[in-house]
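Incident log, support desk, overnight shift.

02:14 A customer reports that sequence design results differ from what the structure should imply. Their input is reproduced verbatim below. On-call engineer (initials T.W.) acknowledged and began investigating.
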């Protein structure tokens, strides 16, 4: 396989755009959730797939920018890296990918689909209610 020398350079330029659009998608979810439950946003938990192609630092930065323009300017942004996991098409076993070993540990098949670790997701929000009480949800 030939090394494509230009690729890292191009990816560097595109990376920020990629992370900004991911951050915008996450922030839209945050706003929808906050519109529903109200209160003050303290923190958000975001899972970043190891194979999502997203750079966690850029993503955190972009989320910070979006938060800065919102009603909740300084939430804590907690990013969690999610390792790649596959599901075997042969036997249905789910397994994590360690290094270059892509074969199913149960049946040895190389035919598997990724189930986790390929996307960026909003996992949860930490919210302080307007009354300063813990959320009792009703
Ligand atoms: Zn298998």
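02:41 Re-run completed on a clean worker. Output:
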């Amino acid at each position: 396989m030939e090394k494509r020398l230009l690729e890292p350079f191009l990816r560097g330029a595109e990376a920020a755009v990629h992370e900004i659009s991911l951050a915008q998608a996450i922030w839209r979810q945050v706003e929808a959730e906050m519109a529903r439950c109200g209160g003050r946003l303290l923190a958000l938990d975001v899972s970043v797939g190891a194979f999502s192609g997203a750079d966690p630092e850029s993503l955190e930065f972009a989320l910070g920018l979006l938060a800065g323009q919102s009603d909740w300017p300084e939430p804590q942004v907690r990013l969690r890296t999610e390792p790649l996991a596959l599901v075997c098409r042969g036997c249905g076993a789910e397994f994590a990918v360690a290094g270059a070993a892509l074969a199913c540990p149960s049946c040895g098949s190389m035919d598997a689909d990724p189930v986790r670790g390929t996307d960026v997701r909003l996992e949860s929000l930490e919210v302080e209610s307007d009354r300063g009480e813990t959320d009792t949800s009703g």
